[in-house]
Amino acid sequence: MSRKPIIAGNWKMNLLQSDAKALFDGISSFVSNYTATQLPTVIIAPVFTSLNQVHAIPCDCGCGGNKLSIAGQNCHWEKSGAYTGEVSVEMLKDAGCSYVIIGHSERRQYFSETDEMINKKAKAILANGLIPIICCGETLEQRESGVTDTWLASQIRAALKDISSEDVAKSVIAYEPIWAIGTGKSCDAQEANRTIKMIRKTVADVAGQSAADSIRILYGGSVKPATIEEQMSMSDIDGALIGGASLKADSFNEIIEKTMKVAAV
Ligand code: PGA
Predict the structure, then answer these.
(1) For residue 244, which atom of ligand 1 is closest to its CA?
(2) Whose CA is nearest to atom 3 of ligand 1?
(3) Which one of 36, 108, 192, 255 is least enclosed by Cβ atoms within 10 Å?
(4) What whole-number distance in Å separates Cα of residue 178 and Cα of residue 71?
(5) Of 103, 211, 106, 109, which Cα lies nearest the Cα of 152?
(6) 74-110 residue pLDDT tens
(7) How far apart are CA 247 and CA 102, in angstroms?
């Protein structure tokens, strides 16, 4: 089963509009050298106030794909209404997004997001025809006490609750061990692959083998140009969600380039 790799840049709460535009220009001029078929699925997730500075780049070769796609970093599950400070999926779609990152550990940790909220968000995203990038991950304490697998399985089961197999198949999961995010210390590639295999098995239990074979599961946590080749050579790692190294066009483009070399895109 071949799954098209994904390289997704999570810009987090960084970059003013002019910086976002400059970074977008640096990435778009790189991806314009290729067709969407040659490239991995390339996604960038700017802050909401910079969505007007970026746009999806459709491929011109007739394949119908995108050279670059846009993601929101979060959403609310309601369509509209009295939810001060929130943004709906329809609004993100209107601003050019086709993906939405949900359940990032920073949102779970600092903004008290629960599994139930993440499940509601996933359903709203899919109902609007967008694709959720559902994050999961364990703390160092959980890893050291040996509960990583059961913890991740419970996060995945809760996030995918009552979602059809067809919708699960087109979704994306990002496995991001919390201790590896922004620390410069990536999870060992073999261990990340083992963990992702376990997540895929959980998806098979919840949504069937065919959905598990189709869903793309990314690794995230201190991914850099120096780590991507080994990560992409693993059987079950379908791409990367990248924070720090996605904030410079040079390093992000290098990650894309190396992914094209390793994976038979
Ligand atoms: P990092 O962030 O690449 O800076 O570790 C990854 C993420 O949080 O998505």
Answers:
(1) 4
(2) 243
(3) 108
(4) 21
(5) 103
(6) 999 999 999 999 999 999 999 999 999 999 999 999 9
(7) 20
